Amino acid sequence: RIPTSQLVQILRRDDLSVVHENEVFDRVIALAEHLAEEGGCAEDVAQLWQAVRFGALSNSYVIKAAHVEAIPKMVLIWAKVLHRKCGSSLLQGPNPKTSVADDWPAGPPRPRKPFKDLVCAVMYSVDTEARNDQDVERNITAATLVAEEIEFLGGRAILENIFARSPTARES
């Protein structure tokens, strides 16, 4: 059995190999239930829950988290506010918010980096015979949003227009 303090250190790592934070939630809820059955310390359970990045949970898992008595509801609200890039500025500056509720820490707002060191080609199509600029912009915008999400999760995205004409084709 791994001591709770060491398990918490592992769960807090940015490079924890999980595809989605929901996986961490599932493991922690199982561990918390196991600790409760063994008569474990409430402090240990709280430390485990504090390792979950609630802002990175899917919406259905946020609802599950709202039903967990050990998780302060204010933590879930703040997590959603701080999750994206724009919200992380609340943790910096002259008076950063360091705790949310019941001395629970306010971060980290960003998700883990499951795509760390991964290079992804984001391919989009802009037909060379596109009818109007809106068609072109819609496809480029969608591809750009996908690329931004990949980079947000630690990867590197390369945008490619799969219908782009080669330089030799344009000259003929």
Note down, in words, how this protein is organized.
The protein has helices at 4-11, 21-37, 42-50, 59-66, 73-82, 133-152, 167-171; strands at residues 119-124, 156-161. The chain is mainly α and 172 residues long. A two-stranded parallel sheet has the order 1-2. Strand 1 (119-124), helix 6 (133-152) and strand 2 form a beta-alpha-beta unit. Helix 1 (4-11) runs parallel beside helix 3 and helix 2 runs antiparallel to helix 3 (42-50). It is elongated. It starts with a helix and ends with a helix. The relative contact order is 0.11. The mean pLDDT is 79.
How would you summarize this macromolecular structure in one to three sentences?
The chain is built from 7 helices and 2 strands; from the N terminus they run αααααβαβα.
Task: Please tag this protein with its features.
172 residues; mainly alpha; two-stranded parallel sheet; elongated
Number of strands: 2
- Give the SSE string: HHHHHEHEH
The largest β sheet comes out as: 2 strands, parallel
Strand order of the largest sheet: 1-2
The low-pLDDT segments are none
The value of Rg in angstroms is 21 Å
Distance between the termini: 70 Å
Helix vs. strand class? mainly alpha
Beta-strand percentage range: 5-15%
Average of pLDDT: 79
Residues in helices, as a percent range: 40-55%
- Shape annotation: elongated
- How many helices? The count is 7
